[in-house]
Automatic annotation (TrEMBL):
The keyword NAD does not apply. Residues 1-21 form the signal peptide. This is Carboxypeptidase-like regulatory domain-containing protein. Keywords: Signal. It comes from the Bacteria. Coiled coil: none annotated.
Length: 393
């Protein structure tokens, strides 16, 4: 079964990586209605471990590395504020951030305490596609699943999920507690497609023994190697092959042996109405199962740097119209990754939806929904997610 996945995972345009300069963002969080300060609001860069709280007077300082960031400001009883900012545009002054009251959160939606068997079944589906099924994912725990609103009725054969509060995820293998503000989740059984996204904030475990810290660092490095973050950082630094990636162009060409959808619909209607047709039911079923496209893979690896332009510091633009087959040669897939054949390497497929993507030094990309990952990278989920400020030792 092949799933198209927009990472976003997990991966909503964020930036907090290695840089040569830092700037402090000074701000105050205020109530939009009466301009009173909001104490102890949470301020963080999404998908990182970089964050802080406003003080009793609503003030905060947050250090930013070079590049583009997505800043998230949230407080109980107020709508979450999120926006992009460029570190180079931040001035040495106090910024005021206004939060609007959230009537829905203030009144608090009543959560039904009794869950039926169907809800628990949907919860397992959600955890499988949100947390994942890798070694790290299966050790992870969704602490507060009861805040989830799971909907399998609005769209046929589709599971939708949302939450009015942060999902709390404990990941002992990687040593993180993750607060995940789920923005969207949609799993289509008919299309075999999963799409989800949100804003995440990582807190490292503390009080660990030296032995445990060493094991966690080993696990993190293993999760990083071959990941989409690793690949995008390698592309940014023009070290794709050096980092262990083989990248080839893959084209999907129309399958001339498969009739058009209009022709297939016409055949189906004739069969239903008992009209003459040159196809038997068995032949029609065979035609229906034929793939719409045929994969055409180039033999030699591609030099991606010929498709890159660099206009601003800390950012490159990769222009590419086709698919990329990506093989990571320095590690085998996770033991739980099941294929009909034995895979010696991590193999993925990346689809550029709009012909170009901006890539940042820390391995984030923009626009956040313009890359689709299939294969191994698409199989990895939140249970293998690392913050964008992660640096392998």
């Amino acid at each position: 079964m092949k799933f198209r996945i927009s990472l976003l995972l997990f991966f909503i345009l964020l930036n907090a990586g290695k840089s040569y300069s830092q700037v402090t963002l000074r701000g105050i969080v205020e109530n939009e209605n009466n301009n009173t300060p909001i104490p102890y609001a949470m301020i963080f860069l999404s998908n990182t471990s970089i964050g802080t709280l406003s003080d009793s007077l609503g003030h905060f300082n947050l250090t930013l590395n070079e590049g583009k960031h997505e800043l998230i400001i949230k407080s109980l009883g107020f709508t979450t504020l999120n926006f992009e900012l460029e570190q180079s545009e931040i001035q040495n002054r106090l910024y005021r951030f206004k939060l609007a009251t959230d009537d829905l959160e203030l009144t608090e939606v009543e959560v039904v305490s009794k869950r039926d068997q169907l809800w628990y079944g949907n919860l397992e589906v959600f955890k499988g596609f949100f947390l994942g099924n890798s070694t790290n994912s299966l050790k992870s725990k969704l602490v507060n699943p009861n805040i989830l609103i799971l909907d399998d009725q609005s769209i046929p054969r589709t599971l939708l999920a949302k939450a009015n509060q942060d999902l709390i995820i404990e990941n002992p293998n990687l040593g993180y507690t993750i607060r995940y503000l789920l923005h969207t989740f949609e799993y289509s059984l008919a299309e075999k497609k999963i799409f989800y996204g949100g804003y995440s904030y990582f807190t490292e475990y503390d009080g660990l023994s030296k032995r445990k810290k060493k094991q966690i660092e080993t696990n993190r490095k293993k999760a990083y190697e071959g990941s989409s973050m690793h690949l995008l950082r390698a592309i940014y630094n023009n070290k794709v092959e050096e980092e262990g990636f083989l990248v080839r162009r893959l084209r999907k060409i129309p399958n001339i042996n498969r009739p058009s959808e209009e022709h297939l619909d016409s055949i189906a209607q004739n069969i239903r109405l008992g009209r003459p047709t040159p196809y038997t039911i068995e032949e029609f079923a065979r035609l229906k199962k034929l793939p719409k496209t045929i994969d055409q893979l180039e033999k030699n690896p591609i030099d991606l740097y010929q498709y890159i332009t660099k206009e601003d510091a800390g950012k490159i633009t990769l222009h590419f119209e086709d698919y990329l087959q990506v093989i990571y040669t320095k590690a085998k897939p996770d033991a739980n990754y099941i294929l009909p054949y034995k895979a010696e390497n991590q193999e993925s497929l990346i689809h550029f939806l709009n012909g170009k993507i901006e890539i940042y030094e820390n391995g984030s990309f923009s626009p956040p929904y313009d890359l689709l990952f299939e294969g191994y990278m698409g199989w990895l989920k939140t249970g293998d997610l690392l913050p964008l400020d992660y640096k392998p030792l």
